[in-house]
Task: structure prediction
Amino acid sequence: MTFSDHPVLIFDGACGTNLQQMTIPDEAWGGCDGCNEILNLYGPEFIVKLHQSMVDAGAMVIETDTFGASSVVLAEYGMQDRVREINQLAVENARTAIAGHPDRYVAGSIGPGTKLPSLGHIEVEELARSTREQVEALLEAGVDCLIVETCQDLLQTKTALISTFEVLAGANCELPVLASVTIEQQGTMLVGSDIEAVVATLEPFNLFSLGLNCATGPQDMASHVRYLGHHWPQRISVIPNQGLPEVLNGQTVYPLSPEDFASQMHQFVTDFGVSIVGGCCGTSPAHIKALSEKLAGVVPAVREVSQ
Result:
């Protein structure tokens, strides 16, 4: 069975919040504390361990630790010349984790960066160059799909997708490309676009799926997922946080238990026809295990999409 053939694809859980639970020595950060992607270089055993915990929990798709592995982000740590190396090692680490597990896949993660073009933080061409470089490295390393995720600005999203498809065309490669936007609690992306604008803007792209991730838990995503179910013709992904983050005693916590998380996600599959699920901030291997068990043998609802 190929990546595209699975009726439901289960992605892994959070990267950053799970790494924060590990005891990682200073030398593994290479002087770049807080840059998770650097661990691919100096502490690969921690990345492999995280990936393996998600595979053991039932994740079918492991995202590479490359969310911020573009030159734009790595320049903040003086590591912009090591983009190719970091991305390729990240794919190797993910491959190590899924070795011996049939029907497991590696998704090349492409985050939004730290500068948004609509807010004047970065020129579109610089963002495009940075994306192309990262996509080339992920492609060379042998990912099974690419996910442009946590998109907060439609100009950034379009730039990333155009750059991604340019690289794929140049390599004569047809790899599944997934796009995932972040809708804040107020109902729009960070720069103000709603889900209707997202669908209208991204409809021309040959996307494998479109969906939501981060910002909120599943409950706050329901109306947007319902809209996608009626208006987006391809597959839909939902990869929420472990509920809406709260601050208790100065610490950020996420409220949903694995069972509650899995139940809400199950409803997206059976009611709205969602066929790609996983976890973002806060979600642990326990959440992915509960999700995998809850969705065993479940077939997504048939959707009626308006033309």
User: Anything to note?
Assistant: The beta strands are 9-10, 61-63, 105-110, 145-151, 177-181, 209-213, 235-239, 246-248, 251-253, 276-277. The chain has a mean pLDDT of 96. Residues 73 and 114 are 6 Å apart (CA to CA).
